[in-house]
Predict the structure.
Amino acid sequence: MRPDTPAENVDHAAEAARLERTAGLYPEDAETLLLRAAAHLELSGDRPSATKLYDRLLSSAADSPGLENPSLVRALKASNLWEYGHEAEARAIIDGVRTASPRDPAPWVIAAESLEAHDELEAAHETFTEGARLLLTDVPEPPYSTHPLLYGRHRVRRMLGLPHDEWDALADTLHTMPVSLDELHDPKRVWSLGSDNPADLQAEISRLRAELGAYREALSRPFPVAMLHWPADELTELLDAYPSLSAEYPCYEEHLATIEAALRELAASGTPNLGVVRGTVPSYEAFAASEGASPADAALLPQYATTLAARGRAVAWPPQRGAACWCGSNRPYARCHGEDIAADR
């Protein structure tokens, strides 16, 4: 989510400025680009400017609701504010994030880690637990995006000296690195850094390598295998402009059914990291122009979907428990396209 290249190797201020300019050229990707720009500003040490970017995103959402994840922006803003002396405001924002009960794990993780970083371990534990309870209760298999919730909760519970519970055991089973979570999260690890015993230092190096491996694995996960979804009004506009694409999309209802069926088939075959991307006619036409092709060319559609996914536009499938359906109906997935899946459970 955030760049972690050392400041001495990257001009973070220049990169932030470049991303801001790019956001102006691609407004549909402004949220993703400006969040990355804010992260670069934080790494450069210019935290007040990062806060301005977070405020810019939140104010734009108030003017014209379109911010995909306002809770994430607020959590990032709170974390940043706390780092340069605005503790009271940061606490208030974190309380607001928790009250909002977002269905995305990222705001929970960021808010909890911010509390943890400032030795608010009890509050961090409560925040991790609230997020896990909301997103993982009665979920047969925790989605990959929720793993940090379980790992962070495990870490804080070890620091608090609490005994393992069912979610700690689940975190242990999800963790695949050679060094166990119990060892990685051992509060006594810090003492090994001051040890004169080479064996202690070698053990710590092994632990750090395991952690680095986990981070690399997370960063190297491919973007989702994504299905292209056209909202009803966008599909109508697309077919009016390019009638030849009617062969791909006979009607809207069949379009939705085809997406859900394809995703289930991919899931049944063992394909991981599935998602849905939402197309718009202007961005599709811009993509076609960049490829030097005609938007009427049906072969361009899967390339467009892949490009949107690579730009971080994919929504994970299946949606989190209780989350709205991917089709835009505003109904919970379990009572929309996932209805028969919920019945099977």
